[in-house]
Amino acid sequence: MTTTAAARLGAPAAVAAGVVAAGALLFVRDPRTSTYLPCPLHAMTGLWCPGCGATRAFGDLVRGDVASALSSNALAVVLLCVGAIVWAIWARARLRGRTFRKPASGVVVVGIVIVLVFTVFRNLPVGSWLAPS
Description:
The protein is mostly helical. The protein has helices spanning 5-8, 10-28, 40-45, 54-62, 66-95, 105-122.
């Protein structure tokens, strides 16, 4: 049984629609001037988690302000780019009727280490430039 390209692209299209909807919300309700849910870790400890500043970064990106986005959360901007590439690979695989291969466990481990190092570094005086602005 063969499926149409539209049927194969259903899941990637749904993810893309969700991202567009989230971007529209951030465009309409600017995170720099609106109240979004604050980070519970930062509120309780004063430490920056890896996601602190990500909402502001994404809000800046939908407005085209890459410099402000990077100063809010550089890791979130990089991960968004990686996510876009992974989404494109996934959509291409679905379009061709192939299965999307999961990343090797080593790639996942490296990703986790990068997030942990970023988190620790942004909470040290030497890495304070990585704290959200």
